[in-house]
Amino acid sequence: MSEQGQAGVALLGSTGSIGVNTLDVIARHPGRFRVFALTANSQVDKLAEQCVRFQPRFAVMADSDAAMRLQQQLQVTAPDVQVLAGTDGLVQVAAMDGVDVVMAGIVGAAGLLPSLAAARAGKRILLANKEALVMSGALFMQAVQENAATLLPVDSEHNAIMQCLPDDYVPGPAPRSVSRITLTASGGPFRALALDKLAAVTPEQACAHPNWVMGRKISVDSATMMNKGLEVIEAGWLFGLPIEQISVVLHPQSVIHSLVEYHDGSVLAQMGNPDMRIPISHALGHPQRIVSGAEPLDLLAVATLQFEAPDDERYPCLALATTAWQTGGTAPTLLNAANEVAVQAFLDERIGFTAIPAVIGQVLQQCSVHAADTLEMILADDAAARAAACECIESGRAVTA
Ligand code: NAD
Ligand code: MG
């Protein structure tokens, strides 16, 4: 615990959706948390504003030109903030002595090295950046264990499961009272769209999520349901369960955030409005409950809760992800990398929506899977999958697949 009993927080990805929601919760508890570091990719003005308001010790920009511009701005408005740059800067702040809590809120593989640095430094990690865990699960969980780090899920489904599991739950496949966990999924904006219209949907339509306001990459992942696929893998690592004990159900209202089923037939669900400040405040305050700012749930206004099975034809990414998880090794690393490249190409309007699973499927066929026990191998396979995905997109093969 740092100065005056406040927990020092390094907020990785502070300008994003998770970052802004985290600052909103932190601002409600000034005696409890102190912002030690804020980081962003390239949004100089937004990070500069956050620095003026929260006066962190450090601010990091992944992009070095942006770091120089931030430094110039802060010389006038917040001269005590020290500016660092690049992945080195991110890794440094994630492991510093004044940091008790690291919010891993960077999107995609860019979050891997800083999140891993936090684990190796034995920090309390609040994990939103599911891609880091998907691409390096065994290595990441080992780093957490060996360095006595604490890993608390911020992803709403995994946070819900954590809330519904027994307090003495130990991840692992041994027989025990939990028989299954069920992740809920909204189904995204195209749940009811005619299948033959999917190929022509636009990035704007894909990013218009019915229940949650999120970054563009995870919004597209929600529309393809790759997000749920990544979350199945995330749940496998966090809770130590085999695929047979993890199920997915569509629940369009996003009020039940996930469920845990026990051997005696009891099913515990965590409910609440779809507001990320709820899981963020749960993880920040744990084991205490702290105010989040979320509106109370009005069950009468919700009135109806629906459940449906996910449709394989509409959401092929879900099967791609579960197959990668069953294959093991670096298969999830390849899946994640191919998905990141394909989603970016879709957002840039270089490929259509239905080409996203086509690209990923081709990369998984083409690239070799290796044991995922070293960082070097994980980074090499991440790079190989990105190159294969780019090649697939540039050659136009994904479109005709
Ligand atoms: P976002 O796009 O809104 O924000 C991403 C943040 O990461 C920004 O601060 C950006 O500056 C930073 N960033 C991007 N690229 C970077 C790079 N190369 N190097 C360093 N920093 C970089 O994304 P988000 O919606 O906040 O999602 C963040 C993570 O949280 C994702 O892994 C997502 O899956 C997960 N998550 C988000 C939500 C949500 O409601 N937004 C819910 C559950 C999980
Ligand atoms: Mg989620």
CATH class descriptor of the domain at 3-154: Alpha Beta
Number of extended strands: 11
Sheet-strand content, in percent, reads 5-15%
Helical run tally: 17
Order of helices and strands: EHEHEHEHEHEHEHEHHHEEEHHHHHHH
Which regions have little confidence, pLDDT < 50, spanning 5+ residues? Answer: none
Class derived from helix and strand content: alpha/beta
Instruction: Determine the N-to-C terminus distance.
Output: 54 Å
Major sheet attributes: 7 strands, parallel
The proportion of residues forming helix, as a percent range, comes to 40-55%
CATH H level of the domain at 3-154: which superfamily? Answer: NAD(P)-binding Rossmann-like Domain
**From the coordinates shown, what is the CATH architecture of the domain at 3-154?**
3-Layer(aba) Sandwich
Q: What fold name stands as the CATH topology of the domain at 3-154?
A: Rossmann fold
> Which molecules other than protein and nucleic acid are bound?
nicotinamide-adenine-dinucleotide, magnesium ion
| Estimated radius of gyration | 21 Å
> What is the arithmetic mean of pLDDT?
96
The order of strands across the largest sheet is 4-3-2-1-5-6-7
